[in-house]
Design brief:
Blueprint (H helix, E strand, L loop, with lengths): L1 E8 L15 E5 H6 L12 E10 L7 H18 L4 E5 L12 H13 L5 E5 L7 H4 L4 E4 L8 H18 L4 E7 L15 H6 L1 H5 L4 E7 L12 E7 L2 H17 L9 E3 L1 H10 L5 E5 L14 H8 L3 E9 L1 H10 L4 E6 L10 E11 L8 E6 L1 E7 L8 H5 L10 E4 L15 E4 L35 E2 L5
Parallel strand pairs: 1-3, 1-4, 4-5, 5-6, 10-18, 11-17, 11-18, 12-16, 12-17
Antiparallel strand pairs: 2-3, 7-9, 7-19, 8-9, 13-14, 14-15, 15-16
Helix pairs in contact: 2-3
This protein binds zinc ion.
The site of zinc ion has 4 residues, from loops.
Amino acid sequence: MRIAVGGIHTECSTYSPVLMTVEDFRVLRGAELLKADYFSFLEADGVEHVSLLHARAVPGGPVSRGAYDAFKTEFLERLRAALPLDGLYLAMHGAIKVDGMDDAEGDWISAARAVVGPDCPIATSYDLHGNVSQKIIDQIDIFAGYRTAPHIDTRETMVRAWSMLVEALRTGTRPGVAWAPVPLLLPGECTSTEDEPARSLYRRLPDFDARPGILDANLMVGYVWADEPRATACAVVTGSDKAVASKAAEEIATSYWNERENFRFGPVTGPLEAMLDIAEETATRPVILADSGDNPTGGGVGDRADVLRALLARGWRDALISGIADRPAVDACFAAGEGTTLALRLGGSLDPSSPVAEVTATVVRLDDPGPLSERQAVIRVGQIEVVMSARRRPYHNIEDFRRLGLDPSTVRLLVVKSGYLSPELAPIANPNLMALTDGVVNQDIANLTSVRRQRPVFPFDRGFDFEPRARFSARWT
Ligand SMILES: [Zn+2]
């Protein structure tokens, strides 16, 4: 049996003016893909895995058309060269926006279907923040989505999708997909599976899996910062029995809809100044403040200096800001050298509308792993330390700090560009506060500009009724 493997994986805020380019992606192709830890589960007796191309990027703005076309062209060339195939597994995120194109995953998966033909089953794995469309569902036979946010089941989800494909090929069966859209768009920060009501909703999914006729049941939160027609939450069920699968999809959709008024932010959340007031009164440490509107892992630009400005205005003592993406500032620090004091203009290096802080800074530490884009600089501004990165990136792991000689657990206030905290930072937060800061992933959802979304959709609209109706993949006959 020959199964080809590939895909494209990122999440794009349509509110961001900063387009992603080829350089923003980690690309796996050929033998490298099959050797990568990310795909190391691809091993089954009698199955030959054929590597195509897998491109993955930290979430951000829309992908440039040139970058998307380049990846798609290479992916399809490799797919054509891999024929004949028994199956295709696509590891997707689901929330790509390509500049000037709607439903990029629909485009990608349809193009793959056209190459492999109607008889080859296609399995996909998705992030639960992906946006699904009928066009996508019509091309696939198997679907599995993450069941945790923060995402700690990435690998398990990929294994679920791939295992269903292997099993279908071994048994000669052909699963199908039913889905039920829900007109509800909430940010991941309200729908973390660490908190109710999402926690219970997701814990019920294995009960659906156990029903005869169902292989895999999913609840997709969708991606709210995409102002495009397909943006939606939904239930997606892979099964062998259409009636059972459609009933399950409608039940999952109803359970999500019925909780719509009950989703809350997990940590204490509010405007930046109110959160800093609380932080000032707090004796325990570290207070970890999430700068949520500029969170790169949600699609934020990551170049904003709002929190730095607010802390400087307060004359704050003992804070660590990790980090601000600012290539020109990092380059200036490298040119100056460690121990030097210099004038820096911080912020707005990627999005010209991002706020800027003009500061006098001392270069504390320079980190040079090799490529210019990987450089980092730690500076001190008054009593505040700031980590600057040459590229957009999160600081979510303890090792990110340790590498720079920083200890996030002892600082009075740690500011991270994040929504819900990462699995490594959440346990040390004492306490965690979330600031409703401005940015292209602003958490004030009801007030986001909404021109292209299908309406009505909660919470943009309220007071409308909804009854879920399951639909099938065109392939499930
Ligand atoms: Zn996600």
